[in-house]
Automatic annotation (TrEMBL), chain A:
GO molecular function annotation: P-type potassium transmembrane transporter activity; potassium ion binding
Organism of this sequence: Streptosporangium carneum
Protein name listed in UniProt: Potassium-transporting ATPase potassium-binding subunit
Segments traversing the membrane: 61-80, 137-155, 176-194, 249-268, 280-300, 376-394, 415-435, 479-503, 523-544
Quaternary state and interactors: The system is composed of three essential subunits: KdpA, KdpB and KdpC.
PANTHER family named in the record: POTASSIUM-TRANSPORTING ATPASE A CHAIN (PTHR30607), POTASSIUM-TRANSPORTING ATPASE POTASSIUM-BINDING SUBUNIT (PTHR30607:SF2)
Membrane topology, from the record: Multi-pass membrane protein
Similarity section: Belongs to the KdpA family.
Record's keyword annotation contains DNA-binding: no
Keyword terms: Cell membrane, Ion transport, Membrane, Potassium, Potassium transport, Transmembrane, Transmembrane helix, Transport
From TrEMBL, chain B:
Organism this protein belongs to: Streptosporangium carneum
This protein's name: Potassium-transporting ATPase KdpC subunit
InterPro entries, sorted: KdpC
Gene name linked to the record: kdpC
Gene Ontology MF annotations: ATP binding; P-type potassium transmembrane transporter activity
Biological role: Part of the high-affinity ATP-driven potassium transport (or Kdp) system, which catalyzes the hydrolysis of ATP coupled with the electrogenic transport of potassium into the cytoplasm. This subunit acts as a catalytic chaperone that increases the ATP-binding affinity of the ATP-hydrolyzing subunit KdpB by the formation of a transient KdpB/KdpC/ATP ternary complex.
Quaternary structure note: The system is composed of three essential subunits: KdpA, KdpB and KdpC.
Family according to the record: Belongs to the KdpC family.
HAMAP family the record matches: KdpC
Keyword match Membrane: yes
Membrane-topology annotation of the record: Single-pass membrane protein
Taxonomic classification: Bacteria, Bacillati, Actinomycetota, Actinomycetes, Streptosporangiales
GO cellular component term of the entry, any: plasma membrane
This protein's UniProt keywords: ATP-binding, Cell membrane, Ion transport, Membrane, Nucleotide-binding, Potassium, Potassium transport, Transmembrane, Transmembrane helix, Transport
Keyword Nucleotide-binding: yes
Length: 553, 290
C-alpha cells in the first residue's frame, strides 16, 4: 500500500469511528445534562460543596460561578507549582518560577495547555497528577457546561433559568469524561504508555553511555489530555514522545479521542432542542471544514514543497518514523481544528504552507469541531451570525430555532467573534514592535513572524500548540500570552452566557414561509462560507507576511 | 457562613468543589489506573525495559545513541536517527530542532572571535546544512554517495546570496561555504561565485538555493531529527543501507544480517496505520546475542 493510500484509509477509518460514536455518545450526554436524578456520590459531593443541586441559575449567576471556579483553580494551581518542592513526589524539582507558574496555571484552567515549560525537567508527579490533570478534566467540563447552558437558552422559553453550573460541572466530569478516560488509559497502557510513580531510572546503554528512563502517571494523563481537547504534554516532546504515544495505533486512538466529544456534542444539541436534524446540520458544518483541513494539510506535507523538505526528500524533520508523514499531518490537523494543541510532530518544521494550514485551522475560531464544549458554542454563535447575514439579504428579522436575533443578540455574537482577532493581531504587533521580543524567534525572515503569529493565535484561541522554536519562557511572553489565554477564554464565555440568557427569555415565533430553514445543506454551505470569509478578511494580511511569503516563491 | 457576603460564599463553594474534584480526579483516578496497570500490564507500565545479561540496557520504546565516547558511530551497531534531545537521545531534554523549511543560511564561525560566554565562536548551522552534513557523513560511513539536492559536495547547503536583491546580478556569494573553500558553482548568470567571508553581513542579497542534479541515496530518516528526539525506529531502507557495514564489522554473512532486519521490521498496524519501521535497540540486542 502506498503511503498516500494508507494515509487516506487512516483518515477514512477515523471518520467512520467518529460517525459511529455520534449517536450513542451524543444521546448519553443528552441524558447526563437533562436527567433529574442525582447519584449517591453526586449528592455527597453537593453536600460537601454546599450547593443545592436542584436550584437553577440565571445567566449572570451561572457566569459568576464559572468565573469563581476558574479563579480559584488558577490560584490553587499557581500555589501547587510554587510549593512543589515542599510536597510529595516532587522528584527533587525546585519550585516553578513565578512567571512560568502563572502562565501554566492560566494555560491549564483555560483549556489551552500552552507550555512555557518542559515537563520532564520542571514538574513533579504530584503537580502533574493533582494539578495539571485535574484541570484537564474540569476545564473541559466547564466548556461543556457553558455549551449546554447556551443550548438551554435556545431550547427553553420565557425563563431566566439556564441550569446549575455545579451540577453540570460535576456530571460532565464524572459521568462523561471519567469513564471514557479510565477505559482509554488502560488501552493506552496496553499500547506501551508508562503508568507508575517512579523517578527516572538510570540504565547503562549498549555502548557504555547512560540514559535516564523516565516514569510517571503518563497514560492516565495522556488520555484526558486528548479527550478534554487540552493538549498539555507530560513531557516536552508531547505526543511525539514514545511514552506518550508508543505505536502507530495509539496514535490513531489519540486522534480519535481528540475528535470524539466535540463531534458528538451536536447530537446532544439536536436532542435538547427537540430536532435531531439541527444537530446533523451543525455536525455537517464542522465535518465539511474538518475534512478539507485534514486533506489540505496531509496533501501539503506529502507533497513536501520547500528547500529543506526537497533536499531531504520528505517533510520528515520533527516527525517520528512510526507515524510517518501522513498520519503526523492528520494528527496536526485534528489538534489545531479542535482546541487541543497536543502534537505528535513539530509544526515549526512543517512545510511553509502546511504550517499555515495549522494556523488557519485555529484562526477559524476553533469551531470545526473545536474544543470540548467551546467548539459547539462557537459554532452556534457563527450560526447566529449567519442567519443575521441571511436576514439582511432578504430584509427580514432573522431568527434561529424560533428565537429572534435582535440588536442585543447580534451585538453579543459580534463581540464574541471580535475578541480573538483583537488579541491575536494586537499581541503579535506588540511583540514584533520590540527588538527584545523579536530576539525570541529561532528562525529568521517570514518564518520568524510565523512563530510569533502562531503563538498569539494559539494562546488567544486556547489551542496551546506552538511553533516551538520561539523562546517563550520569558516574563514578557509568559504574561502577555497568559493574558491572551484568559481573555480569549472568559470574555467569549461571558458573551455566550449573556446570549443564552437573552434567548431563554423569549417566546419562540412559529416558523413561517419566510423562515430560513437551518437544517438543510443550503444552511450548512452558508455557515461554512461565513466562517471562511470572516477569517480570511481578518487574518489574510498577517498570513501574507508570514507563511504565504515563505511558501510562495 | 450565612453572614458572609454572597461573593465570598460563592468562592468558598468553588474552592470546596475544586478540592473534592481534585481528590477524585487527581488522586483516586490516577492511582486506580496505576494499580490496574501495574497488576495486569506491569512490563509496559514500567517502560518496556530491555535487558542484557540480567541488567536493564534501555527501553524498547526509547531510542539511544550507538556511538563511542567521542561521538563517532560504533561500526558493529545499527545507528539511530539524528536527535535534537539534549546531546542526543536524552529523555530529560526531549524535543525537536524546530527549524523551519527555509532555514538555509548558516552563520559562519568567525576565526578568533568569542561568543557571549567567552567561548570560541562556533557559528550556527542551518537546517539545510545539517541535512547535507549528515547525508555526507552517512554516505562515507556506509560507502555510498552522500550527495543530495541543494547540497554542496563538501556537505553544506548549496545557497547563493545574489546582489542586488532585484535586477541583474553583479555579485554572487556561496553563503555557507567559508573561504577559502571552492564554491560549488563557478558562475551564476555570468557572474563569478565567491566563497563567503565569515562575519560579512549578506542579508541584503537575494537568497537563491541551488538544487543541482544529485539524487539522494541516503534515506530521509537518516538526515532528519525526529519530533521527540527519542525515536526508537529507523526506516527499513536505512536499515538495509547499514546492513553490509554491520555484517562486515561483525564478520557475519550480509544475508544473515538482512534476515535479522526483516525479522525486526514491523509493518503498518492493521495494514494502514503509520509506516513500516525497524526497532534499532532490539535489532542491536539480537545481533549481540548472536
Amino acid at each position: 500500500m502506498s503511503p498516500t493510500l494508507a494515509g487516506t484509509v487512516f483518515v477514512a477509518s477515523l471518520v467512520v469511528a467518529v460517525a459511529a460514536a455520534y449517536r450513542p455518545l451524543g444521546d448519553h450526554m443528552y441524558r447526563v445534562y437533562t436527567g433529574t436524578r442525582h447519584s449517591a456520590v453526586e449528592r455527597t459531593i453537593y453536600q460537601l460543596v454546599g450547593v443545592r443541586p436542584d436550584g437553577e441559575q440565571r445567566w449572570s449567576v451561572y457566569a459568576r460561578s464559572v468565573l469563581a471556579f476558574s479563579a480559584v483553580s488558577v490560584l490553587f494551581l499557581y500555589g501547587l507549582q510554587r510549593l512543589q518542592d515542599k510536597l510529595l513526589l516532587s522528584l527533587g524539582m525546585p519550585a516553578v518560577p513565578d512567571h512560568v507558574a502563572w502562565n501554566t496555571a492560566v494555560s491549564f484552567v483555560t483549556n489551552t495547555n500552552w507550555q512555557a515549560y518542559s515537563g520532564e525537567s520542571t514538574m513533579g508527579h504530584l503537580v502533574q497528577m493533582a494539578g495539571l490533570a485535574v484541570q484537564n478534566f474540569v476545564s473541559a467540563a466547564v466548556g461543556m457546561a457553558v455549551a449546554v447552558a447556551l443550548v438551554r437558552g435556545l431550547a427553553r422559553r420565557q425563563t431566566e433559568e439556564l441550569g446549575n453550573f455545579w451540577v453540570d460541572l460535576v456530571r460532565g466530569s464524572l459521568r462523561v469524561l471519567l469513564p471514557l478516560a479510565f477505559v482509554g488509559a488502560i488501552v493506552l497502557v496496553a499500547g506501551g504508555l508508562v503508568q507508575n510513580l517512579a523517578a527516572p531510572h538510570e540504565v547503562a546503554t549498549l555502548t557504555g553511555g547512560t540514559q535516564a528512563i523516565t516514569g510517571g502517571p503518563v497514560a492516565s494523563q495522556e488520555i484526558i489530555k486528548e479527550l478534554g481537547t487540552n493538549g498539555g504534554g507530560f513531557y516536552n516532546a508531547n505526543s511525539a514522545h514514545p511514552f506518550e504515544n508508543a505505536t502507530s495505533w495509539t496514535n490513531w486512538v489519540e486522534i480519535f479521542a481528540i475528535l470524539l466529544i466535540p463531534f458528538a456534542l451536536p447530537r446532544t444539541f439536536g436532542r435538547m432542542v427537540g430536532d435531531n436534524r439541527q444537530g446533523y446540520a451543525i455536525a455537517a458544518i464542522m465535518a465539511t471544514i474538518a475534512v478539507v483541513g485534514v486533506a489540505a494539510l496531509t496533501g501539503l506535507e506529502l507533497a513536501h514543497h520547500g528547500t529543506v523538505p526537497q533536499a531531504v526528500g520528505a517533510s520528515l524533520e520533527g516527525k517520528e518514523t512510526r507515524f510517518g508523514v501522513a498520519n503526523s499531518a492528520t494528527f496536526g490537523a485534528a489538534t489545531t481544528l479542535t482546541s487541543t494543541g497536543a502534537v505528535d510532530s513539530f509544526h515549526d518544521s512543517y512545510t511553509a504552507l502546511g504550517g499555515m494550514v495549522t494556523m488557519v485551522d485555529m484562526m477559524l475560531g476553533e469551531v470545526a469541531p473545536g474544543g470540548v464544549g467551546s467548539g459547539l458554542y462557537g459554532m452556534l454563535v457563527l450560526a447566529v451570525i449567519t442567519v443575521f447575514v441571511a436576514g439582511l439579504m432578504v430584509g427580514r428579522t432573522p431568527e434561529y430555532l424560533g428565537k429572534r436575533i435582535g440588536a442585543r443578540e447580534i451585538k453579543l455574537a459580534s463581540m464574541y467573534f471580535l475578541v480573538t482577532p483583537v488579541l491575536v493581531l494586537v499581541g503579535t504587533a506588540l511583540a514584533m514592535g520590540s527588538a527584545e521580543q523579536r530576539a525570541s524567534m529561532l528562525n529568521g525572515g517570514p518564518h520568524g513572524l510565523s512563530e510569533v503569529l502562531y503563538a498569539f493565535t494559539s494562546a488567544s484561541n486556547n489551542n496551546g500548540s506552538a511553533f516551538g522554536g520561539l523562546t517563550v519562557d520569558t516574563p514578557w511572553y509568559d504574561v502577555a500570552l497568559g493574558l491572551c489565554m484568559a481573555f480569549g477564554r472568559f470574555l467569549p464565555i461571558v458573551f455566550v452566557l449573556a446570549l443564552a440568557g437573552s434567548l431563554a427569555r423569549q417566546t419562540p415565533v412559529p416558523a413561517s414561509a419566510g423562515t430560513l430553514p437551518t437544517h438543510r445543506p443550503q444552511f450548512v454551505g452558508m455557515v461554512v462560507g461565513v466562517t471562511i470569509i470572516l477569517v480570511a478578511l481578518t487574518f489574510l494580511p498577517a498570513l501574507a507576511l508570514g507563511p504565504l511569503a515563505e511558501g510562495i516563491q | 457562613m450565612e453572614r458572609l457576603p454572597s461573593w465570598v460564599r460563592q468562592h468558598l463553594a468553588a474552592l470546596r468543589a475544586l478540592l473534592v474534584l481534585t481528590l477524585i480526579l487527581g488522586v483516586a483516578y490516577p492511582l486506580v489506573v496505576t494499580g490496574v496497570a501495574q497488576t495486569v500490564l506491569d512490563d509496559r507500565a514500567d517502560g518496556s525495559l530491555l535487558q542484557k545479561g540480567g541488567k536493564d540496557v534501555g527501553s524498547a520504546l526509547i531510542g539511544q545513541n550507538f556511538t563511542d565516547s567521542g561521538g563517532d558511530p560504533v561500526g558493529k551497531y545499527f545507528q539511530s536517527r539524528p536527535s535534537a534531545a539534549g546531546d542526543g537521545y536524552d529523555p530529560l531534554s526531549t524535543g525537536a530542532s524546530n527549524l523551519g523549511p527555509e532555514d538555509v543560511l548558516d552563520v559562519l564561525a568567525v576565526p578568533g572571535a568569542k561568543d557571549a560566554d567567552g567561548e570560541p565562536d562556533t557559528g550556527r548551522q542551518s537546517l539545510l546544512t545539517r541535512v547535507c552534513a549528515r547525508s555526507r557523513a552517512v554516505g562515507e560511513l556506509e560507502g555510498v554517495s552522500g550527495a543530495r539536492p541543494y547540497c554542496t559536495p563538501d556537505g553544506v547547503g548549496a545557497v547563493l546570496k545574489v546582489f542586488p536583491a532585484v535586477g541583474r546580478p553583479v555579485r554572487a556569494v556561496s553563503a555557507n561555504q567559508a573561504c577559502p573553500a571552492a564554491p560549488f558553482l563557478a558562475a551564476y548568470q555570468g557572474v563569478r561565485v565567491e566563497c563567503a567571508r565569515p562575519g560579512e553581513d549578506l542579508s541584503a542579497g537575494r537568497t537563491v538555493p541551488v538544487r543541482g542534479s544529485a539524487t539522494a541515496v541516503v534515506p530521509a530518516d537518516a538526515v532528519t531529527a525526529s519530533g521527540s528526539g527519542l525515536d526508537p525506529h529507523i526506516s527499513p531502507a536505512y536499515a538495509e543501507l547499514q546492513a553490509p557495514r554491520v555484517a562486515r564489522e561483525r564478520g557475519l554473512d550480509v544475508a544473515k544480517v538482512k534476515a535479522l532486519v526483516r525479522q525486526r521490521t514491523t509493518g503498518r498496524a492493521l495494514g494502514f496505520m503509520g509506516e513500516p519501521v525497524v526497532n534499532v535497540l532490539e535489532l542491536n540486542l539480537a545481533l549481540d546475542r548472536g
